[in-house]
Specification:
single chain; about 90 residues; about 80% helix; globular
């Protein structure tokens, strides 16, 4: 069982790494590297799912759709199912 200190540290580390993917995606987007930006945004969306902040979710969905044509809002579960088939060991 985690101690209180370990729980706090784990949450802090997870939060930092989780938001890193979004921040990197936005940085790449602003640098004109749209394909790479969509990759990072897609990873962020896949990892956090419905726990994304509303503003982040809207931006991620927009970036992915603009770059790939894939609409995460309408077909997100299709993508998650495909990920399960491609990388079952990761889940």
């Amino acid at each position: 069982m985690f101690s209180t200190v370990s729980k706090k540290k784990s949450r802090r580390v997870c939060r930092a790494y989780t938001h890193r993917f979004y921040q990197e995606g936005i940085h790449l987007l602003e640098s004109g590297k749209y394909g790479e930006a969509a990759e990072f945004c897609l990873f962020h969306w896949t990892f956090l799912g419905s726990r994304l902040q509303e503003a982040q979710q809207a931006r991620v969905i927009r970036v992915v759709k603009q770059e790939t044509g894939f609409d995460l809002l309408r077909n997100g579960q299709v993508f998650r199912t495909a990920m399960d088939c491609v990388a079952p060991a990761a889940w």
